[in-house]
Design a protein that fits this description.
Residues 2-115 form the Response regulatory domain. This protein is an alpha/beta fold. It has 8 helices and 15 strands. The protein folds into 2 domains: 2-135, Response regulator (Rossmann fold); 146-246, LytTr DNA-binding domain (OB fold (Dihydrolipoamide Acetyltransferase, E2P)). It is 35% helix and 29% strand. It has a 5-stranded parallel β-sheet, sandwiched between helices.
Length: 248
């Protein structure tokens, strides 16, 4: 894979280039840039398969650069210092990011995922979803989340998710149209990013969207009855937290 690296600090570029050469020989670094303007020219000139992009740079940020492009026919791995707002957006859009200093194992995994995605498509829908999220500051009712199944990445409105149920490292999403999506990630990956959208962790294995809770049943233990007919258990340890979230 041909790659372009953009970071405003030369030592970061040198370090990443060395790591790629040693641990990711399938990646050929075509060019590097210290600012977004130069980086944009390199993208048009080299037509890379993969872009490693810093976010916080003087002048234009990495997001500014991407928003100035008309299409995304390459994969992106963001390389950044810790930024909670940005990371939340990355997780919603299911795009890869690495925190500085770069961990070798995570770098190799991100490159492998990028190669797999590159083989599947030319147009980067995840990145487009991220840019749409950042550009429009979507209202919560219209917010979409990227859910990666074994066959595809689906972009689902958060408001259409009724509940999530975990099974080891997989999570099943139940939707309002009665469809169920099996996603290749554990439920804890979604708890933080969905809680501000009204989702409640009522049990170790369950997240529920409180707008779809019909009642609290106490016949044989504590259960939440959802509008789709599912009965979701409320664990003893989560009982008070769920009551507080439901305001009763």
């Amino acid at each position: 894979m041909k790659a372009v690296l953009i970071d405003d600090e030369q030592h970061n570029l040198d370090n990443l280039k060395a790591l790629l050469a040693q641990y990711c020989p399938q990646v050929e670094v075509s060019a590097t840039a210290l600012d977004a303007e130069t980086g944009k020219k390199l993208l048009y000139e080299h037509q890379p398969d993969l872009l490693f992009l810093d976010i916080q740079m003087p002048g234009q940020t990495g997001f500014d650069l991407l928003q100035s492009l008309s299409h995304y026919d390459f994969e992106v791995i963001f390389v950044t210092a810790y930024d909670q707002h940005a990371i939340q957006a990355f997780r919603f859009a299911a795009v890869d990011y690495l925190l500085k200093p770069v961990d070798i194992t995570l770098l190799q995994s991100a490159v492998q995922r990028a190669m797999k995605q590159r083989q599947l498509k030319v147009h980067n829908q995840q990145l487009e979803n991220l840019m749409h999220l950042l550009k429009t500051q979507q209202v919560k009712e219209d917010q979409r989340i990227a859910l990666a199944t074994t066959k595809e990445t689906r972009f689902v409105r958060v408001s259409d998710i009724i509940c999530c149920e975990s099974s080891n490292n997989y999570t099943t999403f139940s939707l309002t149209d009665e469809e169920e999506l099996l996603v290749c990630k554990p439920i804890y990956e979604y708890e933080d990013i969905l809680k501000e959208y009204g989702f409640i962790r009522c049990h170790q294995s369950h997240l529920v969207n409180k707008k779809y809770i019909r009642s609290w049943k106490k016949e044989y233990g504590d259960f939440l009855l959802l509008t789709n007919g599912k009965e979701i258990p409320v664990s003893r340890g989560k009982k008070e937290e769920v009551k507080k979230a439901l305001q009763f």
